[in-house]
UniProtKB/TrEMBL annotation:
Keywords: Membrane, Transmembrane, Transmembrane helix. The lineage of its organism: Eukaryota, Metazoa, Ecdysozoa, Nematoda, Chromadorea. GO terms for molecular function: heme binding; oxygen binding. This is GLOBIN domain-containing protein. CDD domains: Mb-like (cd01040).
Length: 118
């Protein structure tokens, strides 16, 4: 086997960690608020995805749709777990990283995160 390839530079990992810390601070470390706001941005761009999550039509703003807050908290918790382990990315997730699904998920996540920081 050849040398291990680093998925991200350490400077990129540090930047992601710092950005995530800033996002959490902006939302008072409330994972539910962070996750719901990420979903809200995604649904603004792709409203047809609301059907996938079975969000009722009368719930115009999911930030006020209490049943969806658990999903938001779960999303932000998973993002936080990934970022807390960002320096172990290759060791922890080597088999998964070769998957094209992860690549697609990372693109969607980074786009949503970029929107959240706007």
């Amino acid at each position: 086997m050849g040398p291990k390839v680093s998925i991200l530079k350490n400077s990129t990992r540090a930047a992601i960690t710092d950005c995530w810390r800033t996002v959490l601070e902006n939302y008072d470390n409330d994972y539910s608020k962070v996750g719901v706001n990420i979903y809200a941005r995604i649904f603004e761009i792709c409203p047809e995805l609301r059907q996938v999550f079975h969000i009722p039509r009368e719930a115009h703003d999911i930030r006020h749709h209490e049943p969806f807050h658990r999903s938001g908290k779960l999303l932000a918790s998973v993002i936080d777990l990934c970022i807390r382990n960002i320096y172990k990315l290759e060791a922890e997730m080597e088999a998964v990283l070769v998957s094209s699904r992860l690549f697609f998920a990372a693109i969607v996540f980074l786009h949503a995160w970029q929107l959240l920081l706007l």
